[in-house]
Please model this.
Amino acid sequence: MDRKIEKKKWTPKKVTAISVTGVIIFIIIYSLLFDDGSSKLNVERKKVTVSTVQKGPFQEYIPVTGAIIPIKTIYLDAVEGGRVEEIFIEAGSNVQKGDKILRLGNTNLLLDIMFREAELSEQSNNLRNTRLDMEKNRLALRTQLVELDYQIKQLKRAYERNAKLLKKNLISEEEFAQSRDEYQYYKKRKKLAIESFKQDSIFRKVQIEQLEKSLQSMRENLELVRQKLDNLVIEAPITGQLTSLNAEIGELKSAGERLGQVDVLDAFKVRASIDEHYLARIHLGLNGEFDFAGETHRLITQKIYPEIRDGRFDVDMAFVQEEPSGIRRGQTVHIRLELGDPAEAVLLARGGFYQKTGGQWVYVVDEDGNSAVKRRIRLGRQNPQMFEVLEGLQPGEKVITSSYDNFGDIDKLILKQ
Model:
């Protein structure tokens, strides 16, 4: 008799299938409840740099490169053009104010002086002749007036005598009238002669004044031309060192051409080149410092050159105290130029992260130190060591400040030992 075989409910295959399904369901539920869904990346802790956010005094400054230059430089330019005929002092020599450095020759200038001297001589002769003519006219008129006075006296006596004779009927009316008219005619002639002399004197006076002014102007012009001749000799404007001299015997130099320079080496200053981005923030009185021979030396901005060349502008800085001993012209110094006064701020150390994020976000390390999460922040001012944190971080928090180039756009970093 056949026996009925009962089928088993829990076969190994069924148990395995149920177990796998349960594990999958558990993983799904766990992920839904405990996983935040963010992308993660495992990173070795020793390959990143972690910095602590701090609160303390912040000094904004920028690094600039400066060069030591003489406290004063006077350039030698050719005021007048000419050929270099003689060089009295060579470059590199010490000079005293007024020392002759070189002499230029200018034939055209010499001919101009001769021409102006001839004009001046001719004008002087014209003035002298005009004065002589005026004196001759004055003497001639005086002679004429003397003659007229004599005639008038004779005619007056005749006129008065005839007037008496006419009353006694000893002469005719015609004879009396003739003596009277002749007397009055000479009186009028004298009056006209005096008036003519006055007009001629006024004219001659104006003419002489004009000639004198013209003569004075010509003298002044001649003096200016002679000064140009003096300018052909280049002299040291100050006591110092003739640092450079760009001239050779026989060389032609144009007016305004740079011939050399004289430097005062008793003191120095620093000329720094700064990026044009900071032009609006640079003003007189800013402080700076640099290290030299193991000591820190203070500087202050003294002069700003606003001209932009190749994206940069220059600033002259003076030493606050004595210059460092041993410093030399042309030396390069690295200056920390302060852009404001120190102020309390939340600070984050500079690092390679900035090139990736532009300071808009960072990875903040959790308290347990096992992970770091992306967080948005806002940075303000900066110096070569620190960023000023405006939003997003608190003092005491830890931030990964090394480069983020290998992290891509990961939201969370798992820090492995």
Summary: The domain at 108-230 is CATH 1.10.287.1490 (Helix Hairpins). DSSP finds four helices and 22 strands in the chain. The radius of gyration is 53 Å. The longest helix spans residues 107-167.
